[in-house]
Amino acid sequence: MDVIVIGGGIGGIATAYQLRAAGHRVCVVERHATVAQGATYGHGGAVLPSPLDVWFGPTFMQTRRAAKTGIVFKPGFNSETRDFAKKLAQFHDPHRFATQYGALRPLVDISRDVIAEIEAEFPLDFEQRTGVLHVFRHERDLELADSAIKLLQSFETPHRILSAQECIAAEPSIPDDPPLAGGVLLPDARTANCPLFTKLLKQVLEDDGVQFRLGREVTAIRADAQRAAVELAPLNGAVDGKGGRSREVELIAADAVVVAAGTGTPALLATLGISLPLHPLSLHTLTAPIAYEERAPHLTIVDSVKRIAMTRINQRMRVTGGAVLQSAAKASKPMSESLTHRALALLGQATHDWIPGAAKVSAARAWSGVRLMSPDGLPVVSATSHARLFVNTAHGPAGWGIACGAAKVIAALISHTEPDVPERTLRALRIDRF
Ligand SMILES: Cc1cc2nc3c(=O)[nH]c(=O)nc-3n(C[C@H](O)[C@H](O)[C@H](O)COP(=O)(O)OP(=O)(O)OC[C@H]3O[C@@H](n4cnc5c(N)ncnc54)[C@H](O)[C@@H]3O)c2cc1C
User: Fold this and answer.
1) What molecular function terms (GO) are annotated for this protein (predicted)?
2) Looking at the structure, do residues 184 and 201 belong to the same domain, yes or no?
3) Domain containing 395 — which CATH number?
4) Percentage above 70 pLDDT, the chain
5) Contact 429, 379 (CB under 8 A)
6) How many Å is the Cα radius of gyration of the chain?
7) Most buried residue, 286, 292, 369, 381, by CB count within 10 Å?
8) Is residue 203 part of a domain?
């Protein structure tokens, strides 16, 4: 089949990879001049999510104070944003959280296998490291994380619960003052450079005949029972017969279209009358040179409650988090200086508290991006009411690993083969579940 994939982030590239592996002819359309320029660019390094760092669950926004949760909650008078936060709060309940994470888990498992297969087949160096230490400042934080820690046990995820002293012994860059309550070490959890992985995989795909239409924006999707097609905006600088700016829309047709366009997804689906209750969440990244080698952590440190990850990537520290939850309209505009400042201050403070002296924060490069989250914490990986349209989106702020497994499910749906995940998981990811 001919398949068009809209979006050149990890979601789209992973989808193209699985579609090509299943024998389809694939064309990826991306509005930027190259791939990995959306949320994928700001990626914090975690390859697969664990119950300790998914962005819903018992510890997520238990209070509304950014200093405690790492999330600046600025709904203003926007009732949609408040409702969205309320829906996510349902998963503070440990049983609901366990059920939801249980549905997600098979996707995480296939993702692990997919990434391992890619690494076995192609010798790709994308700055992989191993070992993640989740740290907790207060006893209460550890108690709140108890149901997530139990899920690590029930899914047989290798982990060790560490006392404060054991945390410092495992990662000497953590200071003993101020005191911490303890931590959870995931010795096999991996971190790496997601934008680099995405670019390397794009190269593999190009060599294998996948077509890339870069610098082209999809403005609308058309789908009927026989064919699907996407409309591309005129190229910048294109001229018409009279020398004026061309308004000619290019149409490319295919047997199926996959929308993996990150935050661009809702607008594209709207052209077919499909609406989704997804909400944007802004996130920040600081990338700073290592200041003192002897103070730089060899493990990735995650402040589990504030959801701030501090990952070493070669000679740089990448610090990510500083989430801002505000209305969709505000999230689509440049963030105000004061909000950016608050979010970045959270990252700077976490670096100072957990790995002082490791990174030259004054020389850090700041970046911010937007991720879509669903009100039940799970992505949308699904066929749609249009037989030729598929959606792979809303992987949330832990999207690398999920995207790779989700891609395999989408490829199976398009190829009419049995997806390798239980029916319960497929139902939980469907577009019509909301
Ligand atoms: C700061 C930050 C830190 C993160 N940290 C982690 C982490 O540690 N671990 C983890 O697993 N995940 C992390 N995530 C989440 C992860 O990066 C995302 O889930 C993932 O990158 C999403 O990939 P995507 O392909 O769905 O979206 P994107 O990367 O946003 O890609 C979508 C692409 O579609 C293109 N597009 C959109 N509309 C159109 C259109 N109309 N026409 C053509 N092209 C279009 C965009 O230009 C973009 O390139 C983080 C996210 C952020 C922002």
Assistant:
1) D-amino-acid dehydrogenase activity
2) no
3) 3.50.50.60
4) 99
5) yes
6) 21
7) 381
8) yes
Asked if residues 319 and 359 have their Cβ atoms less than 8 Å apart, the reply is yes
CA 158/CA 142 separation, integer angstroms: 18
Nearest CA to ligand 1 atom 35: 7
371 CB under 6 A from ligand 1?
A: yes
In a domain, 106, yes or no: no
Model confidence band, residue 424 (pLDDT cutoffs 50, 70, 90):
very high
Instruction: Give how many domains the chain has, as a whole number.
Output: 2
Q: Is the four-CA dihedral 337, 343, 349, 351 of positive or negative sign? A: negative
36 plus 63 within the same structural domain: no
Task: Report the CATH number that the domain containing residue 295 is assigned in CATH.
Answer: 3.30.9.10
Q: How many CB atoms lie within 10 A of CB 115?
A: 22
Domain that holds residue 172: 59-92+129-190+279-373
The percent helix, strand, coil of the chain (3-state, each to 5) is: 35, 25, 35
Same domain, yes or no, for 301 and 254? no
Q: Which of 331, 348, 373 is the last residue of a domain?
A: 373
If asked whether residues 217 and 364 sit together in one domain, one would say no
* 230 domain-assigned: yes
Nearest CA to ligand 1 atom 14: 397
In short, whether 6's Cβ falls inside 6 Å of ligand 1 is yes
Domain boundary among 321, 341, 373: 373
Distance (angstroms) between ligand 1 centre and the Cα of 191 equals 17
Cα 394 to Cα 397: distance, rounded to the nearest angstrom: 9
Chain-centroid distance, C-alpha 156: 24
The reply to whether 137 falls in a domain is: yes
DSSP-derived letter for residue 126 is -
Q: Which pLDDT value is given to residue 425?
A: 97
Q: Are residues 208 and 303 in the same domain?
A: no
Same domain? For 367 and 429 the reply is no
For 239-266, write each residue's pLDDT tens digit. 777 777 777 789 999 999 999 999 999 9
pLDDT tens digits along 330-363: 998 989 999 999 999 999 999 999 999 999 999 9
Tell me the backbone φ, ψ of residue 212, rounded to 5 degrees.
-120, 125
Selection from 66, 58, 52, 36 nearest residue 321 by Cα: 66
Q: Is 322 in the pocket of ligand 1 (CB under 6 A)?
A: no
What amino acid occupies position 156? E
pLDDT score, position 242? 74
Q: pLDDT at position 249, please?
A: 84
